[in-house]
C-alpha cells in the first residue's frame, strides 16, 4: 500500500482534481469584474450601393469605429473577439445580422482604439430590400478566457440608414 | 511431454470465479464511463458534449488540443456565436464562428454563414457543393467553455492509473480458495 506506484497514483489523481477545481474558481472570478465598455460608430461614406447580377443588394461602406473595451479584460482573459454587425429587418426575414468588421484584441493595451475601415465582409442582402433601409449597428464582444466559461454581450446603436437610391 | 502437463495444470488452477469477477469489474468500469457520457449528452442536448479542437483556424482563442464544452438549446442562432457544425458528407465537425445570420420571419428557419477567426475567407468552401448557407440541422451545439488542453492528457493518464489500481486491489483482497472442496 505504500509503494511508489500507489503514492504516485494518489498524487496524480489529487493533482488533477485540484487543477480542475482551480480552473472552475478562475472562471467564477470573472463574475465579479465590473464592465463598462463604450463605443461610437459613424458611417463615413457609402462607397457603393448596387444590385448584383442575381438580384441581391450589396453595400460597401466606410466606418469610423471608436471604442474603449479596457474594462472587459480580467486576469483570466485570453482575448476579446469584437465585431460590428449591421442588423435589420426585411419583409421575408425577421432578423438579418451581417458582420461588417471584426478584430481580435489580444491584450488590454490594444483595447482602446479608433479606426476607419471599409467593411471587411460583404454586406449582401437576401433580396433587394436595402434602399432607404434603417438599420442598427451593433458592437458585439466575446471574451474568451484562459480557462472556463466564455461570456458575450453587445451594445446596440440605432439610427443608421442607407440611401434611397443605388449609387 | 511433462511441460504440457504442467501448463495444463497451471491453467486449471486459475480460479474461474476470480477471472469472471475481474471481467465483470472491468465491464462495470467501462459501462460507468459510458453512462456518464450518455448522461452528459442528455444534459447538454448535443451529440458530442465535449470536443477537441483539431485545427488552428480559431487561434489564438482556441488552440489545437484544447477541449471545448458544448451546449445546445432551442435559442435561435445569432451572429458571433461559436457553433459546431457537421457538413453533409464529412465526418469531422468544425468549430467556427457565425458571421452572418438571416432568420425567416414566418418559419424561424435560419441561414448561417460561418468563418474561422484565423481564416481569411468564410467557410463556403467547406460546405457541400452548391451549399451557401448552414441550417439549424447542421449545427450540433454552441461552445460555452474551454479547458486548457494540458488538463486532458493528465486526466487520461490519471483515469487509467486509477482503474488499474482498483483492479489490483480487487485481486489481492480475495484469498486463494482451495480447488473443489469447501473450507
TrEMBL record, chain A:
<dbReference type="GO" id="GO:0045047">
    <property type="term" value="P:protein targeting to ER"/>
</dbReference>
<comment type="similarity">
    <text>Belongs to the SPCS3 family.</text>
</comment>
<dbReference type="Pfam" id="PF04573">
    <property type="entry name" value="SPC22"/>
</dbReference>
<protein>
    <recommendedName>
        <fullName>Signal peptidase complex subunit 3</fullName>
    </recommendedName>
</protein>
<dbReference type="GO" id="GO:0006465">
    <property type="term" value="P:signal peptide processing"/>
</dbReference>
<keyword id="KW-0812">Transmembrane</keyword>
<keyword id="KW-0472">Membrane</keyword>
<comment type="function">
    <text>Essential component of the signal peptidase complex (SPC) which catalyzes the cleavage of N-terminal signal sequences from nascent proteins as they are translocated into the lumen of the endoplasmic reticulum. Essential for the SPC catalytic activity, possibly by stabilizing and positioning the active center of the complex close to the lumenal surface.</text>
</comment>
<dbReference type="InterPro" id="IPR007653">
    <property type="entry name" value="SPC3"/>
</dbReference>
<keyword id="KW-0256">Endoplasmic reticulum</keyword>
<dbReference type="GO" id="GO:0005787">
    <property type="term" value="C:signal peptidase complex"/>
</dbReference>
<keyword id="KW-0735">Signal-anchor</keyword>
<keyword id="KW-1133">Transmembrane helix</keyword>
UniProtKB/TrEMBL annotation, chain B:
<dbReference type="GO" id="GO:0009003">
    <property type="term" value="F:signal peptidase activity"/>
</dbReference>
<keyword id="KW-0645">Protease</keyword>
<keyword id="KW-0378">Hydrolase</keyword>
<keyword id="KW-0812">Transmembrane</keyword>
<comment type="similarity">
    <text>Belongs to the peptidase S26B family.</text>
</comment>
<dbReference type="GO" id="GO:0005787">
    <property type="term" value="C:signal peptidase complex"/>
</dbReference>
<dbReference type="GO" id="GO:0006465">
    <property type="term" value="P:signal peptide processing"/>
</dbReference>
<dbReference type="GO" id="GO:0004252">
    <property type="term" value="F:serine-type endopeptidase activity"/>
</dbReference>
<dbReference type="InterPro" id="IPR019533">
    <property type="entry name" value="Peptidase_S26"/>
</dbReference>
<feature type="domain" description="Peptidase S24/S26A/S26B/S26C">
    <location>
        <begin position="36"/>
        <end position="134"/>
    </location>
</feature>
<protein>
    <recommendedName>
        <fullName>signal peptidase I</fullName>
        <ecNumber>3.4.21.89</ecNumber>
    </recommendedName>
</protein>
<dbReference type="InterPro" id="IPR015927">
    <property type="entry name" value="Peptidase_S24_S26A/B/C"/>
</dbReference>
<keyword id="KW-1133">Transmembrane helix</keyword>
<dbReference type="Pfam" id="PF00717">
    <property type="entry name" value="Peptidase_S24"/>
</dbReference>
<keyword id="KW-0472">Membrane</keyword>
<dbReference type="InterPro" id="IPR001733">
    <property type="entry name" value="Peptidase_S26B"/>
</dbReference>
<keyword id="KW-0256">Endoplasmic reticulum</keyword>
<dbReference type="InterPro" id="IPR036286">
    <property type="entry name" value="LexA/Signal_pep-like_sf"/>
</dbReference>
<dbReference type="InterPro" id="IPR019758">
    <property type="entry name" value="Pept_S26A_signal_pept_1_CS"/>
</dbReference>
<keyword id="KW-0735">Signal-anchor</keyword>
Amino acid at each position: 500500500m505504500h509503494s511508489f506506484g500507489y503514492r504516485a497514483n494518489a498524487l496524480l489523481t489529487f493533482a488533477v482534481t485540484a487543477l480542475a477545481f482551480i480552473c472552475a474558481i478562475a472562471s467564477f472570478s470573472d463574475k465579479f469584474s465590473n464592465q463598462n465598455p463604450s463605443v461610437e460608430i459613424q458611417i463615413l461614406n457609402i462607397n457603393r450601393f448596387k444590385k448584383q447580377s442575381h438580384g441581391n443588394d450589396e453595400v460597401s461602406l466606410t466606418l469610423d469605429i471608436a471604442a474603449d473595451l479596457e474594462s472587459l479584460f480580467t486576469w483570466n482573459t485570453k482575448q476579446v473577439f469584437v465585431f460590428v454587425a449591421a442588423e435589420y429587418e426585411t419583409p421575408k426575414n425577421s432578423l438579418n445580422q451581417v458582420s461588417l468588421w471584426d478584430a481580435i484584441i489580444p491584450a488590454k493595451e490594444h483595447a482602446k482604439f479608433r479606426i476607419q475601415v471599409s467593411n471587411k465582409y460583404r454586406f449582401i442582402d437576401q433580396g433587394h430590400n436595402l434602399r432607404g433601409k434603417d438599420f442598427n449597428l451593433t458592437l458585439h464582444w466575446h471574451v474568451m478566457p484562459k480557462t472556463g466559461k466564455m461570456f458575450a454581450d453587445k451594445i446596440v446603436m440605432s439610427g443608421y440608414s442607407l440611401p434611397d437610391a443605388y449609387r | 511431454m511433462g511441460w504440457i502437463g504442467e501448463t495444463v495444470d497451471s491453467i486449471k488452477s486459475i480460479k474461474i470465479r476470480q477471472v469472471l469477477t475481474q471481467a465483470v469489474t472491468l465491464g462495470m468500469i467501462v459501462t460507468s464511463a459510458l453512462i456518464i457520457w450518455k448522461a452528459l449528452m442528455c444534459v447538454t442536448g448535443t451529440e458530442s458534449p465535449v470536443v477537441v479542437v483539431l485545427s488552428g483556424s480559431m487561434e489564438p482563442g482556441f488552440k489545437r488540443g484544447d477541449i471545448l464544452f458544448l451546449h445546445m438549446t432551442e435559442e435561435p442562432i445569432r451572429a458571433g456565436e461559436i457553433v459546431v457544425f457537421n457538413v453533409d458528407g464529412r465526418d469531422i465537425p468544425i468549430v467556427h464562428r457565425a458571421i452572418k445570420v438571416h432568420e425567416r420571419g414566418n418559419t424561424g428557419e435560419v441561414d448561417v454563414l460561418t468563418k474561422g477567426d484565423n481564416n481569411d475567407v468564410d467557410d463556403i468552401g467547406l460546405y457541400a457543393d452548391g451549399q451557401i448557407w448552414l441550417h439549424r440541422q447542421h449545427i450540433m451545439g454552441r461552445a460555452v467553455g474551454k479547458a486548457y488542453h494540458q488538463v486532458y492528457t493528465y486526466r487520461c493518464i490519471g483515469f487509467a492509473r486509477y482503474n488499474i489500481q482498483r483492479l489490483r486491489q480487487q485481486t489481492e483482497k480475495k484469498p486463494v480458495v482451495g480447488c473443489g472442496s469447501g473450507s
